[in-house]
Design brief:
The protein has 219 residues and is of the alpha/beta class. It has helices at 16-26, 39-47, 52-67, 81-90, 100-109, 122-136, 149-156, 160-174, 205-218; strands at 5-10, 31-36, 72-75, 95-96, 112-117, 142-147, 179-182, 201-204.
């Protein structure tokens, strides 16, 4: 049986290492390819909203990797949910939003969810996605959010230690909760600094996404 080819589409280079590392740990047999368009985040920030033209760009990127042999596509930036949904509807192979699997796990953990992101536009998109999923499950939830642009700035200047510490400090302030969601792929390294708390699951996008893709393509 040939090993599946998973196309990873990124809006920031910071997402690449965490997801490649997660595949290495959890599904090393999968063949991964990386496609980066680092203008997407800047264009979203400049526009202030997702435009039809930007959604079309996502579909174009997906068609390109499909034409290159991808068996499934994983987008890794959490601020583009509606564009990824439109892409999934246009494609014939599995297309996974970055946080879809993680948010499912968060809802399964309970009703009180802490959500942290370092890229400010990710918070409204993630919160809306979580609330939509909860409504579909007829589940009542409380979501407490924190945005940490200083942590993203630290990571961008190469200070991963400060990035992880800022996230761990914010996590402590959101306890207790049933699930703590680290809302971006680039945040996954901070999970190891968050002290284990009874009854609270700390969830990262890369691990949840890899396990979901593995199950989907093996089904």
């Amino acid at each position: 049986m040939k090993h599946p080819r998973i196309a990873l589409i990124h809006a920031t280079p910071l997402a690449i290492d965490p997801i490649v590392a997660a595949f290495g740990r959890l599904w090393p047999e999968a063949r991964t390819t990386n496609l980066l368009d680092d203008s997407l985040s800047a264009d979203l920030a400049a526009e202030g909203r997702l435009t039809g033209q930007m959604i079309e760009r996502f579909i174009t990127l997906a068609r390109y990797v499909h034409g290159s042999g991808a068996d499934a596509i994983l987008f890794t930036c959490s601020a583009f949910g509606p564009a990824i949904e439109a892409t999934a509807a246009a494609m014939t192979i599995p297309v996974l939003k970055p946080n879809e699997a993680m948010l499912d796990e968060a809802l399964a953990a309970g009703s009180h969810i802490g959500l942290i992101a370092t890229f400010t536009p990710s918070i409204p998109a993630l919160k809306a996605e979580l609330e939509d999923m909860a409504r579909a499950k007829k589940q009542s939830i409380t979501v407490t959010t924190r945005t940490l642009p200083d942590a993203l700035a630290a990571l961008q200047r190469g200070d991963a230690g400060a990035h992880d510490r800022l996230i761990a400090d914010a996590a402590a302030g959101l306890m207790p909760c049933d699930a703590l969601v680290l809302g971006q792929f680039s945040m996954a390294t901070a999970a190891r600094l968050i002290p284990a708390q009874s009854g609270c699951r700390v969830l990262t996008s890369p691990d949840s996404a890899v396990l979901r893709l593995k199950a989907t393509l093996r089904a």
